[in-house]
Structure formats: C-alpha cells, structure tokens
Amino acid sequence: xAHQEWTETAASMVVVLxxxxxxxAAGEPMGGTATVGASIDRxxxxxxxSANPAPSPWMSSRxxxxxxxxxxxxxxxxxxxxxxxxxxxxxxxxxxxxxxxILSTSLYYPAGVRHESQTCLNADAFTxxxxxxxxxxxxxxxxxxxxxxxxxxxxxxxxxGLDEWPHDPGGPSSQAINAMVQRACGL
Length: 187
Ligand SMILES: [Zn+2]
Prior knowledge:
Number of domains: 1
Oligomer: single chain
Largest sheet: 4 strands, mixed
Bound molecules: zinc ion
C-alpha cells in the first residue's frame, strides 16, 4: 500500500525521462535540478553470480492480463540472458549493481491515464532513474518476446541509475540503450 501511495505521488511529480520506445518524453523537461537518482553511488558490485532462485516480477494487481503475460515472458527471458551472459550482467556491474537483484526489486505498474495520453504515445514503458517502479504502457502488451526482454532490462538499467539523453545531455539515447542491451544480452 505504501508502494502504491509512493508511486502515485512519483507518477504525478515526475515528468518521465526514461522512455523506451526511443522518442523524447512528450512532457515538459524535468525542472533542471530535480534529477531523481542522480546521486546514486553504489559500489558493492563484484560479488559472484549467486545461485539464488530465479526472481519473478512483482506486478501490481492493476496490470491487465495481456501485459502481465508479456511482462512474465520478457522478464524470464531477461533473467535467462543475465544468467547466461557476462556482458549482459556487466551492464549492471558498471553501475555498481547486480542485474538479478535489480530485477527482483523492480515494481511493475500500469501507466496511468495521463501517461497513456502523453508519454505512452511514444514509449512502451518508463522508469524514473534510480527508482524501483516501472510503468508499463498498454502497448507493452503487443511487443515481441525479445522486445519485452529488452524493455525489462532497459528499464532495470534506469532503476540501477543509468540516465538517458536528453535528461542527461551527455547520456545515451533510448535507442542507444536498446542497442546496447540487444548486443550485450544477445537479444
Ligand atoms: Zn530509457
């Protein structure tokens, strides 16, 4: 419940900066200094890949069945590729994080009405940099297995602190992040 309150607040405060479909947020830029997650400085990164049970996605009960199904498929594929490929895990290691840990602490919510009519016109999902909640747009229900996995990892990288152009003028574009994920994770 606290989650819900917090995310509702976050959703209304934050102009999204983590777009997955490759187009800049439809909204106004976030007022300069309020960079969420800009101060992330985690250092514990190089613990060995553990044999914990594979994580499963935490989903809001408000997510519709079609999106839940896509998310489960994409999430499981993302986990499999993280387990298989060190290059994929390294995307997170470079940020001082562990990919499986980030995935297992991510929270998936449906995009609200306002975001569906704005951000989701050009995105499949979005995440505030450094935040655990990822909002899934209705169109996420239509993506392929691989695309769903790329999106899951892309959003998880934002959760782990990866910023994106234009919010971070020197950061990678959404497309560049997708390409990086596809290459590193074999997707
Ligand atoms: Zn993004």
